[in-house]
Amino acid sequence: MRLGLIGLGRIGAFHAATLQGLPVVESLVVTDPVAAATAAVVDRLGAEPADSAQALLASGVDGVVIAAATPAHPQLILAALEAGIPVFCEKPVTADPADGRAVLDRVNDSGIAVQIGYPRRFDTAFVAARDAVRDGDLGWVHTVRSTTLDPAPPPDGYVRASGGIFRDCSVHDFDAVRFVTGQDVVEVYAVGSNQGAEVFAEIGDVDTAASILTLASGALAVVSNTRYNARGYDVRLEVHGSADSVAAGLEERWPIRSTEPGVTFPGAAPHTFFMDRFAAAFRAELAAFTELVAGRIASPCTVSDALEASWIAEAATRSQHEHRPVTLDEVRSQEVPS
């Protein structure tokens, strides 16, 4: 299989190595607007360079992975559709989900397979939690807790272009809640605070946030996020039901310290980076894309799925700014403020 990769920044360079390690990938064509980034991956992995995204799409690739900056996602997805090439694109589909409606329509009309990158859908423990819910092992679900705590803030430039903590960070939790429970979110109430770097307040963002999501069944999901968790990178999800409870992420590298006398769990070095925590999930995600390209599976994370997570992020952003609950119907029906 011959695949293309557009965008060779932090996540793109990481994907390049993962793709080269998949047995089914016989050749990899790469490109980035920064020529030095392309050259570095070509030198390191022996990939084939392309002068531009357009040249890459015309080079006979069977599928394309898009890891470019967010503003380029819509045009690159549409260009791949025009070329008849299956697409894997990092989240989000578009910076504003209202703009994503046009992309969704084009995808549906084209019949070309598109997968959006949400790696927690490929983490073994998250999948097991989903299966426990689907199989009825938990009874009826009443509470979900989803957590993403970063060890330290990203660089200021990234923060300023991120769209805010709900669109950049919490959105992974929002997708995980939908994926594991199989339910849509109908209402969001979100709050946030700033005790760290001034950049967050300067751009109207927060460094710590909490969201309460009301699911279609009436179940509640509590989502916690921060840019300041010095002990390590903490990603967990708990699902509590009328018959049983399960948790993903309670393992030896969970970055927390117990104060119970005599308790030594967890005992291993904490996770410090998302690529470390989800290395196996990223590999499984891209392996699934090769199956999608081969026509053996349907998209495991559709454009529609990704837009739903983005709408939840919009509702959370509005809720935090306006100090009130916001329904998903409200944000879908109105122009979303920047």
Describe the protein's architecture and organization.
There is one protein chain. This protein is an alpha/beta fold. The chain has two domains: 2-112, Rossmann fold (3-Layer(aba) Sandwich), CATH 3.40.50; 121-273 and 308-333, Dihydrodipicolinate Reductase, domain 2 (2-Layer Sandwich). The chain is built from 13 helices and 13 strands. It has helices at 10-20, 35-45, 53-57, 73-82, 97-110, 124-134, 156-161, 165-181, 198-202, 274-277, 279-293, 303-322, 328-333, and strands spanning 2-6, 27-31, 48-49, 63-66, 87-90, 114-117, 141-149, 185-193, 208-215, 220-226, 234-241, 245-248, 326-327. A seven-stranded mixed β-sheet has the order 12-11-7-10-9-8-13. Strands 3-2-1-4-5-6 form a six-stranded parallel β-sheet, sandwiched between helices. Strand 5, helix 5 (97-110) and strand 6 (114-117) form a beta-alpha-beta unit. Helix 6 packs across helix 8. The radius of gyration is 20 Å and the shape is globular.
Q: How many individual helices?
A: 13
Strand order of the largest sheet: 12-11-7-10-9-8-13
What's the Cα radius of gyration?
A: 20 Å
CATH topology of the largest domain: Dihydrodipicolinate Reductase, domain 2
Let me know the largest β-sheet: 7 strands, mixed
Q: Proportion of β residues?
A: 15-25%
> Which word captures the global form?
globular
Give the domain tally.
2
Q: What structural category do the secondary elements indicate?
A: alpha/beta
Relevant CATH superfamily of the largest domain: Dihydrodipicolinate Reductase, domain 2
C-alpha termini separation: 41 Å
Give the SSE order as H and E letters: EHEHEHEHEHEHEHHEHEEEEHHHEH
Helix content: 25-40%
- The CATH class of the largest domain is Alpha Beta
Poorly predicted spans: none
Mean pLDDT: 96
* Extended strand count: 13
CATH architectural designation of the largest domain: 2-Layer Sandwich
